[in-house]
Amino acid sequence: MAPNNAHTALWPAPHASGAVDATVHVPGSKSVTNRALVLAALASEPGWLRRPLRSRDTLLMAAALRAMGVEIEETVSSSSSAAGGPDGAGEAWRVLPTGLQGPATVDVGNAGTVMRFLPPVAALADGPIRFDGDPRSYERPLNGVIDALRVLGARIDDDGRGALPLTVHGSGALDGGRVEIDASSSSQFVSALLLSGPRFNQGVEVRHTGSTLPSLPHIRMTVDMLRAVGAQVDTPESGGEPNVWRVTPGALLGRDLTIEPDLSNAQPFLAAALVTGGRVIVPDWPARTTQPGDQLREIFTEMGGTCELTEYGLEFTGSGAVHGIDVDLGEVGELTPGIAAVAALADSPSTLRGVAHLRLHETDRLAALTKEINELGGDVTETADGLHIRPRPLHGGVFHTYDDHRMATAGAIIGLAVKDVQIENVATTAKTLPDFPDLWTGMLGN
Ligand SMILES: O=C(O)C1=C[C@@H](OP(=O)(O)O)[C@@H](O)[C@H](O)C1
Ligand SMILES: C=C(OP(=O)(O)O)C(=O)O
């Protein structure tokens, strides 16, 4: 496949000839890897990331931190506890934090974690840090981070739209303090300010003022990972005020962290078990996690499967029947494309609610899912905050992906049950799961 044809290239989505029965080693979590990189870069001593995800989003994060002076060494781990899966396990990144400095240029690609988590880090650097990215990154909301950083003492040049491109003129330190933000368009605004908060002179108090707040598990992930490196964080859940988070200033420890598998990227494989009435085992599924993908155990059980979590991992089994679901996905928005794909193959209608903010994700996911499923013969309508999906017999055709990794994996799920589905630009899965096509055909025994 010539690289300049990658966007228009069509990948024949494999059709399942029977029930799948496979063990799938799912690479590391994007959200955990990128938080771990940021926290390691802000720490006062070296740290380790073992089995990090290596995908476009995490390599962009690593490259951006390196551009600001952080050393990230590729190492082969000697720790037997980190050895295991066949996906490069045992390899690690050793992060050596240094004085952050500009001038530097950061390419955010279309990574929400990079475009939101790094401007606060840049405010702590000494020198100008320029941020740019894919065309879509100019459209994704960043105003919550930009406005808040200005209130906290940063100097930022942008074009006044509250979005990329922009330059943060770091002065080596930031006052910090109290700030109000409306994070209804992205939880990443809150996570971004909290992650760098311990390094602000006064720490940070973030008060969310909007009416809704998506992706709460991702904010819990931020808080958990901050606490694990020694930060003191007060949260609504620890007895604080609703919608207020406080981070006390202080040094961060270096951590030796083995990254969990990405449970949102496990979704298409579990969906394969569900829609084919088969069985998929995902090794190393954590017993306790803040990843939103853990909610798939409940959601896909309601849609017709059963699961068992053992010390080895998660075993998920389809019953042969796939049911519709009425569910609020506000906490787990990134699971919506995969759930919509399964819902289009179900024996009853579904209503997916609480995900209006998906219109500002990698693409407008509500519009994209509606159009692409309907073009295969489906009956999906957009609502103010989600989708109504009435299953109908589907036919083959091209499933467009709009540079959205989760559109590509959603199309692949449909292709298991519907012959002659072709996924346009399956290579877009490289954002978080470069191995997707191989893992998918491997799961099917091809
Ligand atoms: O903090 C994170 O790692 C993420 C938070 C969520 O963002 P939104 O709150 O913008 O949906 C999620 O959708 C994204 O995939 C990853
Ligand atoms: C919304 C997503 O990504 P991002 O981190 O770019 O917001 C996603 O991965 O589904």
TrEMBL record:
GO terms for molecular function: 3-phosphoshikimate 1-carboxyvinyltransferase activity. Keywords: Amino-acid biosynthesis, Aromatic amino acid biosynthesis, Cytoplasm, Transferase. 3-phosphoshikimate binds at K30, S31, R35, S186, S187, Q188, S215, E334, H361. Phosphoenolpyruvate binds at K30, G112, R140, Q188, R365, R406, K431. It catalyses: 3-phosphoshikimate + phosphoenolpyruvate = 5-O-(1-carboxyvinyl)-3-phosphoshikimate + phosphate. Residues 17-438 form the Enolpyruvate transferase domain. GO terms for cellular component: cytoplasm. Pathway: Metabolic intermediate biosynthesis; chorismate biosynthesis; chorismate from D-erythrose 4-phosphate and phosphoenolpyruvate: step 6/7. The keyword Metal-binding does not apply. Belongs to the EPSP synthase family. Monomer. This is 3-phosphoshikimate 1-carboxyvinyltransferase. It comes from Streptomyces acidicola. The gene is aroA.
